[in-house]
Amino acid sequence: MFRLVRCPCLRFSQLRLLSAKARRTRPSAAEPGQGDREPREGAAEGTVPSVSVPSTSVDSGGSRSAPQTLSLHDSLYISSLLDAYLGLGMVSEAELVFNRHRREGHTFPVSVYNKILQSWVKKGSQLRAVMLFESMVRDGVDCNAQTHAIMLVLHTRRKNWDAAKKIVARMESEGYPLKHILQMAQLSKTEAAEVLKAMDHFRVSAEKLPRQVGPYPRVVRSLYDDWSRESDTERPGEVTSGEEKSEERLGVGVASVKVFSPDELKDRLRRQLQMEQQGYLSAPSIAAVHKTDSPEEEALKESTHRLMRQWRRDLTAALKRDNEDFKTVVKCLPALGSKFFGPKQYPFLLLLPAEVWADIVVEEVVVHILGQQQGLPLTFLCRLICDSAWHKYVVLQKKQRGVVEKTSQLYQQFMSHLATPSPPHLPHRQLWQDMDDALASAGSLSVDIPKWPFTVASYVGAGLLSRLIDTAKLSLSDDCNGEAAFFHSYEAGENGWQAGHVKGHQKLFKLFKKYYIKHEVHTSISMINRYIHSKNTLAKKHIEEDFRKYSNKTKKHEKSMIKGNM
Predict the structure, then answer these.
(1) Whole-angstrom Cα distance, residue 204 to residue 177?
(2) 8 A C-beta contact, residue 500 and residue 16
(3) Domain 53-201 in this protein, CATH class
(4) What is the pLDDT of residue 438?
(5) What is the pTM of this model?
């Protein structure tokens, strides 16, 4: 038996989303002077190891504190929070959080220093960038190629060639030659152009750095799959072993040369970005079973879409109001607090437009919650929402840094090389890397964005779900108009602890079950299983055939991905 409690807001349950151990153990009282520290979420997924952090001197104050322990979840959350502030261009706020934790004795990897340094250079603040770099040298932080490349960009923009010469000498002494710096560092297109100016000034030519590469480039994996389906012939006159075939054969031969037009390559790139934004493979719809819709089904379809559009509009309007309130009081972050969100959530919410967040929340809720009549755990939904948002944010950053533009150029060259009657006898991964190195002036293809930990998912996801519960209303008929479409409850689990669940209104299942089992592309697996066990034997047969094909296709795709990443 379990007790069902309706809760219109998740504020009091946000910190109880986690494991039984977190609920059975009361956190100790905060020590004096540590009230502004981030709350520890170390028990979010069970016992989390702690990382012992030695003391270190800090920026201009040079104060030093006793060694402290920073839990793994704290470390991941702080790194993600800093990255979110920097992504918004709020470098001063990020540095406040950064220096506060340094004064407490915590240390950060050099990648965190580099991101703050890179943000100051991007904003054109030479003094703050130089101060941070000198602090790194004074504290004994091991500077890498990224650090030196950023400082070289700064001095090149200011045409301070004496300081740039010192940076180049320091790079050479630490094993980062200027001729290889474009490949060693992750620079945007504009930053790479500044480094090339420095090379011209010091009369240094860029050289390729030998790489250890595999047979396949992951970024063009979808192109391989499409090509292998379109052409299944081997190059004539070649006798290779099975292993060499698996590494070098692409399915293109002299008799079946296909040249892609720019529009076709642009369409393939668009599909590649969509796959990255989704982050998962979608289950095929069984809409083929019902190709023609009756007037009743069309009316059902329209009412369902109208209801979802209304949820999106209401949630978008609410998030925009919250974001505006946050922007007006951004200078007093510690005092900021609202019914649904606080300073721990807002930096992440501002990374994407309110419309994008509303689309993510509504789609994930409709697909998953309404496919489970008993509801779904908050932990699962929070992680699902934030994973989808993180993928969209990564693609957005790639567009801003010029990665998407460079990838489209490489696509054209890559496919042109492979479509020649005598393609170069190189592993495809080596061919891709050679073209990448030749186009080093366009920046790096890699973007260092840490995956959001579960702490971020619990903060942001719980706030978004509480906002959805507050705004999503039913408008199916007069008897249920204005009622909440979703609600939060607790269900008893193992060992007597209670887990938070989000459930949908019972009247929603009658509507969405009739519609989504027939029309929606992303169909719930549990809903299909229930439909399979129904009396509709014809639909059962078609569903089983569709999922058998989907399962085989997924297995082949996973094998090819594993093989391509070796």
Answers:
(1) 10
(2) yes
(3) mainly alpha
(4) 81
(5) 0.66
